[in-house]
Write a structure and sequence with these properties.
Length: 156
């Protein structure tokens, strides 16, 4: 049985997309379906942009790859809610920043997008990546927290 796209290692997913055996849309859809199937329990995402991510993946699939290669062409990724994104709220895991919309992407997000990555959304972080655990549950034992500022990223 073939491996599900969301279970592929990044290098394998990129190779399958480069060979034409996998599309960015199919990979993104598989990741979003996995998130939907378990995020009611795990709660790893603070903000998820499913339709926007699928639109971006389709655009990657339509893009001419003959020019400068995008090393992460079509690869889905998430970022901690402590990292600024121009098109999604960045709340720093804190209620005092609820709805905050930065004017631009953090450098790491801008570089990921420029490299061809498809941003799915923002993962839960502890408040200001420091204290006060978020809502995320350990995917192997939902009675526990994954703990730490990368709890959402780790659980996702």
């Amino acid at each position: 049985m073939a491996q599900a796209p969301n279970q592929l290692h990044a290098i394998d997913a990129l190779a399958q997309m480069a060979a034409g055996h996998l599309t960015a849309e199919a990979l993104t859809r598989a990741c979003l379906e996995r998130i939907a199937a378990r995020d009611g329990t795990v709660r790893a995402f603070a903000w998820l942009e499913s339709e926007r991510a699928l639109d971006e993946a389709r655009a990657r699939d339509r893009a001419d790859r003959a020019g400068l290669p995008a090393p992460l062409h079509g690869l889905p990724f998430g970022v901690k809610d402590i990292i600024d994104t121009h098109d999604m709220p960045t709340e720093y895991g804190s209620p005092i920043h609820r709805g905050h919309r930065p004017g631009r992407d953090a450098a790491c997000v801008a570089l990921m997008r420029r490299a061809g990555g498809v941003l799915l959304g923002k993962t839960v972080t502890t408040e200001f990546a420091n204290v006060h655990p978020g809502k995320t549950r350990n995917p192997f034992d939902p009675a526990r927290t994954p703990g730490g500022s990368s709890s959402g990223s780790g659980a996702a």
